[in-house]
Specification:
It contains 13 helices and 8 strands. By secondary structure, it is α/β, with parallel strands linked by helices. It has a single domain, classed as P-loop containing nucleotide triphosphate hydrolases (Rossmann fold, 3-Layer(aba) Sandwich). β3 and β4 form a beta hairpin. The protein starts with 8 loop residues before the first strand and ends in a 12-residue tail after the last helix.
Length: about 325
Amino acid sequence: MRSVFERELVVITGKGGVGKTTIAAALGMAAARAGRRTIVVEVGEESRLPGLFGVAGARGGGECVLGENLSSISIDPDRALLEWLQLLGGRLSGRVLASSGTFQYFAAAAPGAKELVTMVTVWQLTGRGDRRTGTYDLVVLDAPATGHALGMLSSPRTFGAIARVGPVVKHTNHVRELLESPARSAYLAVALGTEMAVTETLELRDGLHARLGRDLDAVVLNALLPQRFTAAELQHLSTLTPHDAAAKDAMLAAQTIHRRARFQHNQLARLRQRGLSVVGIPFVWTAQLDLAGMEMISRRLERALSAPVSNEHAARV
């Protein structure tokens, strides 16, 4: 099996707030460092990556160069669908089309249309479509949170079931082939070491299997705290009598962090017991993640995911 970095598309999703964009950017950095021309795709009106890399964002969500071999783009599903309807409407301007009610009517009447157009754009970025701008060796999709991501990934089937012809529908099979082929695409879940996030990851795995016949290639467990104490050391710590308030606070903090770390690693074991490959990313002890922290995460992902990933052999923390 090919490694994650050798696919055409890597889809990254998970529960909201777990650091999906960070992991997508770090994965893109690793691929670019290996010489693969890579683009990280955000879904939505705003793009956060240019600011993180200290570059000016492209106007209208266009492609933006972040560094050598690395670019980003933001795809707004509403805008993508509007542009497609403009193609259908010939010379009709986007302003007139948007205000006519046609756009809202079509979006409501055609389930999966916006999501499908978004995925067609992603497919075109791989160089398989008729896109006139840049094409890439690897597309990293920073997908929406789990439920919305599954809807977007299912859009070729959803939309294809109600429409048979048209300028976008003809691409439906191409998008399906990309999403359903283990040789061309990979799926990574990002989670925190919490019961809710891990449960949602397991539900994501079930959803991928039911809708696309695919499994998660790996789970990235983000912000893992280190286990600094053995059971004996923790027991000894609990017997100590602090001499002042500062020492008491330090002892309580150490015990609290240890309990949190133990719980996180129990959740990690829970994922592995379900046969999932898990890549642990240590907690970054800075007030705000910067490029140096991104580089550390990127190199850890590179080490863990450069070899072919099998669910029978979990990537170690």
